[in-house]
Automatic annotation (TrEMBL):
May cooperate with MD-1 and TLR4 to mediate the innate immune response to bacterial lipopolysaccharide (LPS) in B-cells. Leads to NF-kappa-B activation. Also involved in the life/death decision of B-cells. One of its GO terms (cellular component) is plasma membrane. It is a single-pass type I membrane protein. This is CD180 antigen. It is found in: Cell membrane. Belongs to the Toll-like receptor family. InterPro entries: Cys-rich_flank_reg_C, Leu-rich_rpt, Leu-rich_rpt_typical-subtyp, LRR_11, LRR_dom_sf. It comes from Saimiri boliviensis boliviensis (Bolivian squirrel monkey). One of its GO terms (biological process) is MyD88-dependent toll-like receptor signaling pathway. The keyword Transcription regulation does not apply. Residues 501-550 form the LRRCT domain.
Amino acid sequence: MNLTFLDLTRCQINWIHEDTFQSHHQLSTLVLTGNPMIFMAETSLNGPKSLKHLFLIQMGISNLEFIPAHNLENLESLYLGSNHISSIKFPKDFPARNLKVLDFQNNAIHYLSREDMRSLEQATNLSLNFNGNDVKGIEPGAFDSTVFQSLNFGGTSDLSVIFNGLQNSTTQSLWLGVFDDTDDKDISSAMLKGLCEMSVESLNLQKRHFSDFSSTTFQCFTQIQELDLTATHLAGLPSGIKGLNLLKKLVLSVNHFDQLCQINAANFPSLTHLHIRGNVRKLNLGVGCLEKLGNLQTLDLSHNDIEASDCCNLQLRNLSHLQTLNLSYNEPLGLQSQAFKECPQLELLDLAFTRLHINGPQSPFQNLHFLQVLNLTSCFLDTSNQHLLAGLPALQHLSLKGNHFQDGTIMKTNLLQTVGSLEILILSSCDLLSIDRQAFYSLENISHIDLSHNSLTCDSIDSLGHLKGIYLNLAANSINIISSHLLPILSQQSTINLSHNPLDCTCSNIHFLTWYNENLHKLEGSEETMCANPPPLRGVKLTDVKLSCGITVVGIFFLIVFLLLFTILLFLAVKYLLRWKYQHI
């Protein structure tokens, strides 16, 4: 058999006997989550030639000797979360050489010894997850002999235990965050000195509290390249922090800054990625707060209640290498002409759900010659401004979702005429009633158009006549009867979604219904494509509709009777006329 993935989650399996999977040679992923297992035979996993991923979550396992070691030589990931395991010591014959992911989250592991870890010495670049175990002790040297891809000690209350136990260890990523229900001990600068005795590139301290936050807090962060301080209750970062020259990515989301300058960006001269999302307080962008970050490539300032009447050149001064900018879900922003002149290398700009006030007739985006993705979802734009999108020669993906067009119509002359390079266009939820036949003529490279959740009728399909091979989403509109002359337009597209339309399933729409069942391979959302009329067929899927719109036996009978009566009446009429004619000769 060619089965490669088998999910047996919560199937009340108690026993797995010898050679149960003997016939499944191609099986690579086996999920046994949530089964109250009593017994697994030593050869129960024999059969698959390359079993790589095994999920034994929530099975009541308390000892790793319960797991059959036969035929696991190719195992790459083993998930043992939410069991009752207290020791990670594997049997001597357990094949750990190819393991890349070993997940022990939410068990009862409180102490890690050198002997426990010795069984994993064969593994390289292992990702080891102890999240939710609250480890209280680690034998010195336990983690010396293996280079790890990641270590996760999330939820551990006392981090001094972790830092002391990981001396001389090497890991790409170290996750030391906590959760809302964790009663954790505050982090001190002295505690973080443990980082000087280990090699770490990425560090996550999510939701931790700092007892004494100062420039000396970071003195052992010299090798750190990624630092996540999400929700660490910070109101500012101290100036004069030394030794963070290697830091490339900094996450400061869900903190308590009043102004962007409070992060003291000059501390991070090599930073390429900065994320400050969901700040607890209204964030003021200030002026030039990030100008020392000349290498910054990605900046995420979404969900911060940012408000500015003149954005964004002063605020983003000297960010000439910026490629991705996210200002979505903020308060109103005023944009002047060339509002992003300081960021000429932008490739992605996300302004979704931020009300934009465009000051002047010229485009605020006109200098962004490399911009490929522009998200203007629900920005309350003046879509009648035909120059709004001028100067974007490389734009490929544009979302205007939730913006309204005058009189609910996209006219022949519109703002899309300046973005002929577009490949993906999102116009859903724009309250559209109609589209001019030539509205999309300038979109020569388009491959995806989303017109869902509008009030378009079948007449709007005419505007797509020149397009071929595109993905077309017309879901949730007001389309009921599609005339036969429009069917060739649909036929020349690659994928069409007509779900959630009030489709007519009477003989008036028989040409479309026939076409629909002949082109199911092109149609998306067929499970939600249903009849709205006539009432007896309301809610029936189009694929289940069988209409007979020819002449029935009863119809033929009445037709014959009609023709017979018509012939008799005609004969009597001719006879009457002839008699009348002869009487008047």
